[in-house]
């Protein structure tokens, strides 16, 4: 499947071959490395293991970029080996990059080490270390730049407001969904929050009030006509330029959802796994295997058998692998990927000698779990806050482009990311480059108003934290993005978020336009937005977007997708397979996960939580 897609970028090595973790420790030394597949280069940094060098990732990234850019022509003409045989002078560049990286780490990390007694860990039991939604974490978020902004954000939330029911909804696009589909989504969503509640109840120090407030309240789902008012854009002027949309009155509680979170912090996805309990039950009642049909518990129960110290054969594993493959497919992992995964696990285990008390099923399950976690852990972490600060130092805005098909949640999640950036003290210019879909500009205007209501200039020393740059409809999106970036540079905005028109992956003219927008504007980050709801379809979209960007780009080295925003995670219960499929096929990290319709329904991916959900019976 990978080869058939036809572009080098789609090469997805088998899990055990992939460096989910690009570091290697040997005795007192740690090596970190980065591969450049295009020019076949390896960049390695070695340092004493005991040193905690926070800038190593940055250093290796910067050296990679600079070295590649400096010698790009030589690589293209002579290849990497040709260059190495000749002479190249990179020492001064390296020393400069090293100094920069050291400096940047000093700016970013003025942390003082706590004693164990001071640390939260000293008060925690293992159980309460499982973070639950709604429970306010006491730990400070790293990379947070501006303490003032956090406070201000909280104050803004407390401001008294009133609004119509329609205005309370974060999104203006809910009418697209059909009622029956929405009902299913709502059911799944309730299930998602039920799990979170369950996890919360189990934690050591629950906050009773917070627990009461969250989750259990019936959610107003933005169906059909409920947001008709929001969708009435007839009064909007649509041919402005950059505008600090006026502050709009609305209910900030609805926009913010969970009040107990720490502003600006991007929480990890959580998922409660009851698979452990399931497994324990099987071990205790090994004479009475679980008969739950189709589930993993059933599978493990039925196929359980002690192997003793014999080596594993394909025949031992095949029945387990078959069940496992079906289980993965039932969890929305693309069928071909489920097959490849099981195959790679089989190859890894074949001939392995088993411990006396180990079962085939538990061995296979563990190998699969490890492979899945490795797939989800990005080879290269995208640290948006760090990169924004870096851009700030170079006095330029950091640019993120969002692309994907229609209705996946591009604008909504762009707004959530704006909110998160603002809470971290960064100003945002939203570039309305969806000049195609009626209502797209107005939807962004509504978000801009609400974000301004939550973070008014008064709370930020008179600074407007979010502005919309728009030129109405029908114009060239690449040109608007370019103008927006230059406007942001002149006005001192920290980040430009470029919304693009939704397009089907097979639409060649639109894909060419997107490739042009990306080639012309060279954003720092190209994010593909995909729904967790669709299994194989999301993979198809992602593969074709990447391929189309490669095919339709005029540039010598086409710019491709750098990362993924996985949306509507709250609507899939434990059918989390799309996350696996998407990362497996592209080796690109899931940078953000959308978990709802409020501004704080944004998470970072937690590989272990996703794998726990995936393995759950
Ligand atoms: P776009 O066409 O890609 O810009 O999509 P929109 O941002 O307009 O979103 C389409 C619909 O998906 C809207 O109803 C959003 O509220 C909804 N949506 C977006 N992200 C999420 C999410 O993470 N969870 C849920 N439940 N709904 C979402």
TrEMBL record:
Bilayer topology term: Peripheral membrane protein
A GO MF term: signal recognition particle binding
Record field: compositional bias (Polar residues): 224-241
Name of this protein: SRP receptor subunit alpha
Membrane-spanning residues: none
Organism: Zonotrichia albicollis (White-throated sparrow)
Chain ranges of the SRP54-type proteins GTP-binding domain: 589-602
Comp. bias intervals (Basic and acidic residues): 196-213
Gene Ontology biological-process annotations: intracellular protein transport; SRP-dependent cotranslational protein targeting to membrane
Stored Pfam families: SRP-alpha_N (PF04086), SRP54 (PF00448), SRP54_N (PF02881)
Similarity comment text for this entry: Belongs to the GTP-binding SRP family.
One GO term describing the cellular component: signal recognition particle receptor complex
Keyword terms: Endoplasmic reticulum, GTP-binding, Membrane, Nucleotide-binding, Receptor
PANTHER family hit by this protein: SIGNAL RECOGNITION PARTICLE RECEPTOR SUBUNIT ALPHA (PTHR43134:SF1)
Location of this chain's protein in the cell: Endoplasmic reticulum membrane
InterPro entries hit by this protein: AAA+_ATPase, Longin-like_dom_sf, P-loop_NTPase, Sig_recog_particle_rcpt_asu_N, Signal_recog_particl_SRP54_hlx, SRP/SRP_N, SRP54_GTPase_dom, SRP54_N_sf
Chain residue ranges for the region called Disordered: 132-177, 196-263
């Amino acid at each position: 499947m990978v080869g058939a897609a036809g572009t080098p970028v789609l090469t997805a090595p088998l899990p055990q071959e992939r460096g989910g973790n690009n570091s290697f420790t040997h005795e007192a030394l740690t090596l970190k490395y980065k591969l450049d597949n295009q020019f076949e280069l390896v960049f390695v940094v070695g340092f004493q293991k005991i040193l905690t060098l926070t800038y190593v990732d940055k250093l290796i990234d910067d050296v990679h970029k600079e070295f590649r850019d400096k010698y790009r022509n030589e690589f293209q003409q002579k290849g990497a080996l040709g260059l190495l045989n000749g002479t190249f002078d990179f020492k001064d560049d390296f020393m400069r990059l090293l100094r920069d990286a050291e400096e940047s780490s000093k700016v970013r990390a003025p942390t003082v080490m706590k004693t164990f007694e001071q640390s939260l860990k000293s008060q925690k039991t293992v159980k309460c270390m499982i973070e639950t939604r709604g429970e306010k974490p006491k730990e400070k978020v790293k990379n947070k730049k501006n303490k003032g902004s956090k406070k201000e954000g909280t104050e803004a939330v407390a401001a008294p407001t009133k609004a119509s029911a329609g205005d309370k909804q974060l999104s203006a696009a809910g009418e697209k969904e059909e009622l029956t589909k929405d009902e299913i989504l709502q059911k799944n969503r309730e299930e998602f929050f039920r799990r979170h509640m369950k996890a919360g109840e189990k934690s050591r120090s629950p906050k009773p009030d917070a627990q009461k407030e969250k989750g259990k309240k019936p959610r107003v789902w933005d169906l059909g006509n409920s947001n008709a008012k929001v969708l009435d854009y007839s009064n909007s002027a649509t041919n402005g330029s950059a505008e600090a949309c006026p502050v709009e009155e609305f209910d900030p509680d609805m926009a913010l959802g969970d009040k107990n979170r720490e502003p600006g912090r991007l929480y990890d996805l959580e998922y409660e796994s009851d698979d452990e309990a399931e497994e324990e039950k099987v071990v205790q009642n090994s004479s009475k295997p679980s008969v739950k049909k189709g589930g993993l518990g059933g599978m493990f129960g039925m196929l359980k058998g002690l192997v003793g110290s014999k080596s594993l054969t394909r025949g031992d594993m095949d029945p387990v692998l078959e069940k496992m493959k079906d289980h993965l497919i039932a969890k929305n992992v693309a069928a071909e990927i489920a097959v490849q995964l099981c195959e790679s696990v089989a190859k890894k285990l074949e001939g392995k000698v088993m411990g006396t008390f180990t079962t085939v099923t538990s061995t296979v399950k563990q190998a699969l779990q490890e492979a899945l976690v490795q797939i989800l852990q990005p080879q290269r972490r995208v640290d948006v806050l760090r990169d924004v600060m870096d851009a700030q130092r170079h006095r330029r805005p950091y640019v993120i482009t969002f692309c994907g098909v229609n209705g996946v949640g591009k604008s909504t999640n762009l707004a959530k990311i704006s909110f998160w950036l603002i809470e971290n003290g960064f100003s945002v210019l939203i570039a309305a480059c969806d000049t195609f879909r009626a209502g797209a500009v107005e939807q962004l205007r509504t978000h801009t108003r609400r974000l301004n209501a939550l973070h008014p200039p008064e709370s930020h020393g008179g600074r407007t934290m979010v502005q919309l740059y728009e030129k109405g409809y029908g114009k060239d999106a690449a040109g608007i993005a370019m103008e927006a970036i230059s406007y942001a540079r002149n006005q001192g905005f920290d980040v430009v978020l470029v919304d693009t028109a939704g397009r089907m992956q097979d639409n060649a003219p639109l894909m060419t336009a997107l490739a042009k927008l990306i080639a012309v504007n060279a954003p720092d980050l190209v994010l593909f937005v995909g729904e967790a709801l669709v299994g194989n379809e999301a993979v198809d979209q992602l593969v074709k977007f990447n391929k189309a960007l490669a095919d339709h780009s005029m540039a010598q080295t086409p710019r491709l997708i750098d990362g993924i925003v996985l949306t509507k995670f709250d609507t899939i219960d434990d059918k989390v397979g799309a996350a696996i499929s998407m990362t497996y096929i592209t080796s690109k990290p899931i940078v953000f996960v959308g978990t709802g319709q409020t501004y704080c329904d944004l998470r970072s991916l937690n590989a272990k939580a996703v794998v726990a959900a995936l393995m759950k019976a």
